[in-house]
Amino acid sequence: MSVALSKNLTTxxxxxxxxxREALAQQGFGVLTEIDxxxxxxxxxxxxxxxxxxxxxxxxxxxxxxxxxxxxxxxxLPCNVVVRADPGDPDTVIVEAMNPAILVQVTGEPALMAVAxxxxxxxxVAIASLGPSCP
Length: 135
What we know:
alpha+beta; TATA-Binding Protein; 5 helices; 5 strands
């Protein structure tokens, strides 16, 4: 099982971030947290790296369903979506979303499968809507 649902795009980083936020919103996800890894590593460690942003996305209705099944699932929420520049190709931006099926594997709670399937479908639609993948 892959850890991520992903797509590679050939466009500007800032455009992909904006399109990703909009695509998530269209599927009922809000962005609760945002971590600019590039800026944080530069500020804290003096390390330079490519653009790398972690968006903590949450669909409230689906989060509620998951928490109703297993209160500990909050340890694995929100769904992380990463928008990052490809260090090997500066013209490529990668969007990756955590594969929700991992929630079921980690918890061993089969009742979470229906929620994970729905989250997977919504994240899949959001990522697919970003446009065609680069070759």
